[in-house]
Please model this.
Amino acid sequence: MRRSSWPTAIAVVTTFALALPAAAAPLTFPIRSEDGFFQGEPPQVTAVSWILYDETSDMVLASWDADTRRPMASITKIMTVMLAIEEGEMSDQVTISQEAADTGAQEIGLVAGETVTLGALVKAALLHSGNDAAVAIAEHIGGSLEAFVAMMNERAAELGMENTHFVNPHGLDRPGHYSSARDMLIVGRQAMSMPEFAEIARARVMVFPDTPDGTPRSATNTNRILNSYAGVLGVKTGETPNAGLTYVGAAERDGRRLFAVVFRSVGQRAHFADAITLFDWAFDGLRIHGSLIAGIPYQPVIARVEPAPLLLEAGVEALLHVSAQGITADPPGPPGDGPIPELPAAADTIRHPDPAPDSLISTMAYWLGLLTGELDD
Model:
């Protein structure tokens, strides 16, 4: 075969590989999680447990020790806030108990006896990570802390969180309070599917009602990379002595949504650095485009130019090329019922006196014959 024909041969073989399914049905790209789509090993991060998930393709891209039970810190509040939205009304008036006001650690500054809306408490718990707000939510929704914690565990079981057990609504270190990276991915995805939750999670600043004596209260979202990483949607940070730094994050670019969960990242703001490393690897390194990986069908276009062979154009507008990292695909255009694309010049000039091939196999043989010189063009 002439050396100059090799790139063309590769293109022809690739085109026919893509076009074969189109003969019987719309072209699709079936995806199996075991197939991977990786270009090199996953990046190194400091977290001892982590998972990276592509929601567009419903695929775990990579993980490490994702089912080990570990303290989870304030990412606990994802479940707390989700239950508040599912079971309560944001306009509910909540009277703050002394127990809620005395919770300790990270607080919004609730005062025993004051009345605050459930909606305000939800924002304080999710954005500011207020432990006092989480206890107030639990007492209002469950009637007591114990009853609410039972609700949390029941909901976890419903979601299939097999390595999770809650003993409080805020995430402060307590014996028997644990989860796993995979389980927190489950609850994070469920919560972010709720519009009310997702809207709160991406807010950067909140203004809380003043205290009874008029002292102003406000807070910024603890999810600091909302301001610095393109596409971040939420969801929740956490830190305690036993758990270390934890984070459940979601980011979206070009219609492709990823989730990253990290447990016990090591170093200042390392949970953010770890999540960014994982997101970058998936968004920029893997080059998986949502419409391809999800298997969105493309209607085949069949063009016949007599007496040249049958030309099958699968309607995929991706350009395949060989690079140092392997075969990659540029983003395809949107599928649709547009006009038949203009045929390339070669289709207008190639002629052969023999009858046009009557099958895909004979068509392929025809083109390869031209490339190898066995046929004259």
